[in-house]
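Let us practice reading a record.
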Amino acid sequence: MASTEPPHRTSLLRQLMGWLLLPLALLAALDLWITYRDARHTATLVQQRMLLGAARMIGQQIEIQDGLPNVVLPPAALELFASPYADRVYYRITRAGGELLLGYPELPPPPQPPAPDEAVYFDTWQNQQAVHAVAFSQPVLSAPTQTTLLIEVAQTLVGRDALAGEIWRSALWRQLGLLSGVALLLGLGLRRGLRPVTGLRDQVLARQPGTLEPLPSRHLPTELAPLADAMTDYAARLDHHMSAHSRFIADAAHQLRTPLTVLNTQLVFALRQSDEPARQEALRAAQTTLQHGTRLVQQLLSFSAAEASRGHPDDMGPLDLGQTAREVLEHLALLAAQREIDLGFEAQGRDGRKDDSFEVAGSARLLHELCANLIDNALRYTPPGGAVTLRLRRTAGQVLLEVEDNGPGIPPALRERVFERFFRLDNQQSDGCGLGLAIVREIAQAHGASVQLGDGPQGQGLCVTVAFPACTT
């Protein structure tokens, strides 16, 4: 049982919004990542400035008493780190030999000693807490001998991380606000920009059935004008197609009405006849009329099947056109004998080879119908005592199917018109219905082949050539 769920449709507005906002969101994410790195760098610089400031303040308070440095920790040095965060501050002052003068003895030394009056920043651990520290080499000029003290100041990372987070969150809210504003403006702009699409839809829906006036495209945007022109062209082609079908149905009804009317008249005449020979003659005429009507119906069905298969036959495959041609000739050999027509077959491969392949890609059913129509047409229009020959030729890239006869032929001026449905030449007396060559062209086009009409042998009669693309082996 077929599903009754409606098909899933996507919104063009949503797709456009997605394709526009997605790159913006990716750029915003990249900018936030860069902002986060910059925020951490800025917070680290602020902390380093405070650490170095505290170390210098401590160094400025060092005095020499009795030839030894006297270290006093100024309160202002620790007040630099005053903040609402529970950060711990550690310090240590040592002499060049590592002698502790003041501070926390467990505070690790720097990875490498700094040069005089220089600072080295490093990360370490203190009391199982991550800290960022500065080691400053302070020369003491008032000492009797050259003396350099190492001042270390370290601080935990709570305040630094909090400052980096505040900077990043500020950027985050700014980016979210910017994206929201852009999304709002994009939505309004796209809705306004898509108004011509809905306007074009309303114009199409407002048109009356059968209206073929072109859709106005002069005031449409450049992107929509080709769509309106394509819809107008499609409507014209659809009207032409439907008109052709309507004419086909009308012509078919007319073609069927004539034999049915004649058949009814013949049967009524036969029923009224008391003379048996006259009755038999009327019944034989009715049988002939019925056969003609049956053939017309078969031709109509064949043409409908060929037209429906144009471009996509459902049973395409490699097949030997020579085998198909032989089957058709065997089937129509009796009709040729009844009409006293010499029915022949020739096969000529490349370079005159007799065993060459005539393989093409096609539908066996449709190609059988094509060959049958060509041979049947030739037999019907060739007078008794004539000849009909089916010839296959192989070239480098094609397989040529030729059917030639020495009948009355077709004037060059009318050779294109004979492919029209129900078209018949006025000077030809035959029981044909004017669909044979129309069916041949439909089947040929479905197989990517071409059909050409030319003169028969010695300029008499007709030669129909169908050129098929050969299968590559």
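A brief commentary: Residues 248 and 254 are 10 Å apart (CA to CA).
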